[in-house]
Design a protein that fits this description.
By secondary structure, the chain is of the alpha+beta class. It is built from 16 helices and 14 strands. Helix 1 crosses helix 4. The chain is elongated and about 120 Å long.
Length: 521
């Protein structure tokens, strides 16, 4: 195996903010972290995820979707004023909130599924805190330079240059934060219209308050607090342990090949000492946005962003060694390899036990395979997630867009007319849940000899009548049902109101009660 001298790899003066050697108190003052820019496949993947997630957040309110002349054309809209939620071709009414509840259930189960298989991938790649911190760090590096330059600037005295750099950085952070708050309010009203109102000062006060609050929180969390939000405020690091098992993929320092560490590999080998692959360069610590040392093992603060893998792989490339000293690995594979490297736990890690004479890795070592993550827990989560999704999809495809509700008058419950017939009053509510007007036919079913009339509809009493329902609106009618005295079948008779849309082939019915005097004994 080719071993290069440690002088060919720069050793970074980086120390974990909460090293295993010196554990800090829970409420210790914050130590600033200056993450070094990483490069590699995981960093490129994070750039891609950041571009996609920020693009979705900022651009979605501006997407248009044609729903006809009687509905808004914004693709995604939370219309609180009219109590509607529009998502492309889907429209959700307040009484259909179970769709939102179902989506939240899918999100929760999906988070369990992802965590149990690939660890805290949500935290490392798609969490808003992670995405915006990454964005703020891009600005910081562009203005103040990479890690060493930022540390030097922070430790130096306040000069005109430092003041200009800091003012520029925070000004851009505030612009990003304001854009974040501004984009959020566009989800709740027509984006082009609201944007004009905001810039002209005519928007509702709640819009400006929302922008100010979200600007402050984005600036504080993404620019000032950063890793403290994940460590102290987010509950997920404390929950994730219940989601992980020995077959979950996590970012792991493979000390079965890295130990013992040495900055002087050639000298140590010449002296007959054991030498692992880790050259103690601290590159993994320098790039960590959480400021931890992955070589200390799994930690609450680790968001598994895998930047330490990129940093370590680049060092291994320089030394001519195999990548993967830090890698995604399962606990079961790690334990199996540690057993090989320690001869079943009988002695310290011996690198010679994991390699052959020519420097290749031993065939006894366990290697990850994708099938290892497909285990009962994975299928249970996937099954539950799919079941909720299919139930929502079935409900969405089969739901009726025409609903009926009827309220019987309480006082009086019935009225005896001059000809002896009995009349009952009802409040009939017709809900047209499509963005088009349509003609609804209301019909009585049952109740022999009965007829009905509606207030505001100038038609003679009959068994049915037609009325126009406005698009996306609830129509309320006052309906009187009259039954001749000789047809009364008892003190309480059941019958049905039936409503039909002849054009849309939709119908709904409601079982009501017709009250009459108790028969004489």
């Amino acid at each position: 195996m080719k071993v290069l001298d440690q002088t060919q790899v720069e050793r970074l003066e980086a120390e974990a903010v909460n090293s295993a050697r010196v554990r800090q108190p829970l409420y210790a003052p914050r130590r600033k972290i200056f993450p070094k820019r990483a490069s590699g496949s995981f960093r490129r993947f994070k750039w891609l995820v950041m571009a996609i997630t920020l693009g979705i957040y900022y651009l979605t309110p501006w997407l248009r979707w044609d729903r006809g002349a009687f509905a808004p054309d914004q693709a995604v809209l939370l219309d609180l004023a009219n109590r509607r939620f529009y998502f492309f071709f889907i429209e959700i009414w307040p009484q259909e909130f179970y769709y939102v509840a179902g989506l939240l259930m899918m999100a929760g189960i999906g988070l369990f599924l992802i965590t149990s298989t690939v660890g805290r991938a949500w935290c490392g790649y798609t969490c808003p805190q992670t995405v915006w911190v990454d964005l703020f760090l891009v600005v910081e590096r562009a203005i103040e330079g990479d890690r060493n330059a930022r540390m030097k600037l922070d430790a130096g005295p306040w000069t005109a240059r430092k003041l200009v750099l800091r003012a520029s950085k925070h000004a851009i952070w505030l612009v990003i934060a304001a854009a974040t708050g501004g984009a959020w309010i566009f989800y709740f009203a027509d984006a082009p219209t609201l944007a004009g109102e905001v810039f002209h000062g005519t928007a509702a006060p709640v819009a400006y308050v929302t922008i100010l609050v979200l600007t402050a929180t984005t600036y504080t969390f993404g620019g000032l607090m950063r890793e403290q939000v994940c460590t102290y405020m987010c509950p997920w690091p404390r929950i994730q342990a219940a989601m992980l098992d020995e077959n979950s993929l996590t970012v792991t320092y493979n000390d079965w090949r890295g130990e013992p560490r040495s900055r002087h590999a050639k000298k140590a080998l010449a002296a007959g000492q054991l030498v692992g692959d880790c050259v103690d360069c601290n590159a993994c610590v320098a790039v960590c946005p959480m400021g931890i040392d992955i070589r200390d093992g799994q930690q609450l603060e680790c968001i598994t962003c895998a930047l330490c893998i990129d940093a370590c792989d680049s060092v291994m490339d320089k030394l001519g060694r195999q990548r993967g000293l830090i890698s995604y690995a399962t606990l079961s594979d790690y334990n199996a390899n540690m057993a090989v490297a320690t001869a079943g736990g009988s002695r310290p890690v011996d690198p010679s036990l994991v390699r052959t004479a020519d420097g290749a890795f031993s065939e006894k070592l366990a290697h990850f395979h994708i099938r290892k993550i497909f285990r009962p827990r994975t299928f249970i989560y996937l099954g539950a997630w799919s079941a909720v999704g299919l139930a929502l999809l079935y409900s969405l495809l089969t739901r009726e867009r025409l609903e009926l509700n009827v309220l019987h008058d309480r006082n009086p419950q019935f009225v005896t007319l001059s000809d002896g017939s009995i009349r009952n009053g009802y409040t009939v509510k017709l809900l047209n849940m499509i963005p088009e007007p349509r003609t609804i036919v209301v019909t009585l079913q049952g109740l022999p000899g009965a007829e009905m009339s509606a207030v505001g509809i100038e038609l003679p009493p009959a068994r049915s009548f037609a009325t126009l329902a406005d698009p996306d609106r609830l129509k309320t009618l006052k309906v009187f049902v009259r039954q001749p005295a000789d047809q009364i079948g008892g003190a309480a008779q059941s019958f049905k109101f039936l409503i039909e849309d002849k054009a849309g082939l939709e119908s709904a019915e409601y079982t009501a009660t017709f009250n009459a005097p108790e028969p004489a004994r």
